[in-house]
Specification:
284 residues, alpha/beta, 5-stranded mixed β-sheet, 3-stranded antiparallel β-sheet
Length: 284
Amino acid sequence: MERESYPSDSADEQWALTEPMITAWKQERVARPATGDPGSCDLREVVNAIFYQNRTGCRWRYLPHDLPSWSAVFHSFGLWRQDGLDQRIQELLRCQVRAKARRLEDPSLVILDTPSVRAAAGVPRTTTGLDANKKVSGRKRGLAVDVLGLIVGVVVPAASAHDDAAGTALPDQAAERCGMRLEKALVDQGFKDEVLIHGALSDIDVAVVRRNPADRGEGFVLQPKRWIVEQVNGTLTLHRRLAREYDHRSDTSASRVHWASIANMTRRLTTPSPAWRDTLGPAA
């Protein structure tokens, strides 16, 4: 008897986008018995369970009984994080979304941001810290996104880390995934000269988007192109597991960002674009 679907489930056309890579991973993993058996449960249902947990924010042991056992999902999630499968799927989908938008696969421009996210009770202090400026105890979620709002790089340091720590790691991630096409990165005023120098050494023009002094006292004002990464951060918090830092490991938090991005991109690829998007010309 088939179970009733959850709103977070991957539809048939969405599963068709990710299934080949997951099946190929399982075949490769089985061929390397020393690395561990990925298990025999339905991998589509494992993905659905990850989407469900990301969207609802529940604990592992609170996963519904009509999904695979929480231990099987936890095991597969850990293997995929360890093998980098979540990143590879995200990269493939990112290229497909950009192609659908009639853009080159890799962007020439990325936008960086490092918001601080509060940590839930029980998250180890060894992986968290206090952002003294924002008075937030937890971690920073460093993102590099393109002008379509697609995630190119993710780092999750402690909130006590300076923005420059993420500001030097993110361009390196983006350059590794985008190659020589990456030319420019936009950052806010929280990033210092270290990021600009690091970018110059990597042949990436890092530009600081400064606030217009005339906007002082006007409240929140959108900054050109910087608003894109702000929007992505807001969209990620719709996945309740990302509204706070619940995971003990920072690489698990990064993996959750990848899975949230995968869920978003599969919907973008299988849902007709609004008519106004068709008028957009080529850009970065």
